[in-house]
């Protein structure tokens, strides 16, 4: 496995950024092309009867000003439609379903739909959080078919992404996993943390591993990335070689341990070790290390 196997990172969706300020062109295309409208409420999608995939309408849903242009996939136009609470409740009743996080049904989505779910979630959460201008406090208006916020004083804002690093440290036949205090019993994962202001991603990898485990590393290799709109991260995944042995915990971690491949496989099989879900890049890193999907 390599970074090609990270879930929801490959799609033929063309985001058509050049069309975001050509509303008339999009309206013309709507008349002649197939269109898909994805209702989104607080970053969640509607699963009718708790079934997958999420509900996609062939007609606009909700208020036109909350319609965002996602792009063109296989010559068809895709939009996300941000709903109010009343609109979401109405749709839930109409389809006997619930708005749920993409986490719940991720493995039931194909690559394109998984990508669209993460994309529309990230955009919707950003729009909801940016209701007011963060410079002057005036009400923001959504511009550029969903991709820009503009207040009456002309302050423009675009979606902000928060980069986070995630790293699998290995030493011979063992890898380093940790758990935080508030995690469910048995859950362990790769070490991770946010990139800080003024820091390179490489520095963040060294710093986070050392802070959380006291382990020094070398030979840091880029593995791949995954959009992670929970609410606005981009996971940047790495592999690294551990060059020290003794673990010391910081306040953030409840435990950090070295696991051998055999121990990982056995504990995963008997249920005493719970890893991040299959669709996460943390799982991809660990699966790649043990040589089979976990
Ligand atoms: Zn402003």
TrEMBL record:
EC number in record: 3.6.1.22
GO biological process: NAD+ catabolic process; NADP+ catabolic process
SUPFAM superfamilies named in the record: Nudix (SSF55811)
Organism in which the protein naturally occurs: Marinicella pacifica
PANTHER family found in the cross-reference section: NAD-CAPPED RNA HYDROLASE NUDT12, NUDIX HYDROLASE, NUDC SUBFAMILY
Family matches, as InterPro entries: NAD-cap_RNA_hydrolase_NudC (IPR050241), NudC-like_C (IPR049734), NUDIX_hydrolase-like_dom_sf (IPR015797), NUDIX_hydrolase_CS (IPR020084), NUDIX_hydrolase_dom (IPR000086)
Signal peptide start-end: none
Family affiliation: Belongs to the Nudix hydrolase family. NudC subfamily.
Name used for this protein in its record: NAD(+) diphosphatase
